[in-house]
């Protein structure tokens, strides 16, 4: 093998290795909740409420230029936890409606009124107050250890203080395995490069001996 042949071979291996890495690299995460909470003034991250069997979210909390917010705007709970929405009586009449239509409360401005849902399955649940949705009165419940940067799923919710629809698809946890694929790809490419480097070195040594 001469120098030109070796360089061509090394370049080919580098190209194959790079292509393999590109094919197995994970796709960059999309914006949080696919932009659902963009513009919600009181949203400053997902509040971790895991470990609790019941979590309360205020309806008519301060935000969005008045009392037009859910407080907190986004919570993370364990599967099987109950979320209770409690009306503050401020900001006029509000309701709580799932974006996928899986549940809906009545419209009221009564202080102390509650509406609840138990979330049994992992997923991302988006909801809003219909009359104030355009103002930013939106919220989200993250059930389990799903990534909020990926596209959301359905509710996986059951039960409420009022009649509601059930169903909706559930978002599963992010799939793994990409890290292992990258490691294998790098290892295979490295072995090929080392093999190609060994060929001309062995040839040089043999010539020196002669």
- Which secondary-structure class do the elements indicate? alpha/beta
Query: Strand arrangement, largest sheet?
Result: 1-4-9-8-6
Biggest sheet descriptor: 5 strands, mixed
Rg for CA atoms: 27 Å
CATH class of the largest domain: Mainly Beta
Low-confidence stretches: 13-31, 150-155, 160-178
In the CATH hierarchy, the architecture of the largest domain is: Sandwich
Provide a count of the helices: 2
CATH superfamily of the largest domain: Cupredoxins -  blue copper proteins
Strand content: 15-25%
Structural domains: how many: 2
Query: How far apart are the termini?
Result: 17 Å
Helix and strand run: HEEEEEEEEEEH
CATH topology of the largest domain: Immunoglobulin-like
Care to count the β-strands?
Answer: 10
Task: Give the CA-based shape.
Answer: elongated
Biased composition (Low complexity): 158-173
GO cellular component, one term: periplasmic space
InterPro entries: Amicyanin/Pseudoazurin (IPR002386), BlueCu_1 (IPR000923), Cupredoxin (IPR008972), Halocyanin (IPR017533), TAT_signal (IPR006311)
Main location: membrane
List key phrases describing it.
alpha/beta, Immunoglobulin-like, 210 residues, 5-stranded mixed β-sheet
Describe this structure in words.
- This protein is of the alpha/beta class and 210 residues long.
- The protein folds into 2 domains: 59 residues; 127 residues, Sandwich (Immunoglobulin-like), CATH 2.60.40.420.
- It has 2 helices and 10 strands.
- It starts with a helix and ends with a helix.
- About 21% of the residues have low confidence.
- InterPro entries: Amicyanin/Pseudoazurin, BlueCu_1, Cupredoxin, Halocyanin, TAT_signal.
- This is Halocyanin domain-containing protein.
- It comes from Halorussus aquaticus.
- GO terms for molecular function: metal ion binding.
């Amino acid at each position: 093998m001469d120098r030109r042949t070796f360089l061509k071979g090394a370049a080919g291996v580098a190209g194959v290795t790079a292509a393999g890495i590109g094919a197995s690299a994970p796709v960059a995460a999309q914006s949080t909740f696919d932009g659902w909470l963009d513009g919600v003034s009181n949203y400053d991250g997902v509040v971790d409420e895991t470990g609790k069997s019941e979590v309360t979210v205020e309806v008519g909390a301060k935000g969005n230029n008045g009392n037009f917010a859910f407080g907190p705007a986004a919570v993370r709970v364990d599967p099987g936890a109950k979320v209770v929405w409690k009306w503050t009586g401020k900001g006029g009449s509000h309701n709580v409606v799932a974006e996928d239509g899986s549940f809906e409360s009545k419209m009221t401005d009564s202080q102390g009124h509650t509406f609840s849902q138990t979330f049994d399955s992992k997923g991302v649940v988006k909801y809003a107050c219909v009359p104030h949705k355009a103002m930013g009165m939106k919220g989200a419940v993250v059930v389990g250890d799903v990534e909020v940067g990926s596209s959301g799923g359905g509710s996986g919710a059951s039960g409420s203080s009022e009649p509601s629809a059930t169903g909706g698809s559930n978002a599963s946890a992010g799939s793994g395995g990409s890290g292992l694929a990258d490691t294998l790809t790098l290892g295979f490419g490295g072995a090929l490069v080392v093999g190609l480097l060994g060929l001309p070195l062995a040839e040089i040594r043999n010539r020196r001996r002669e």
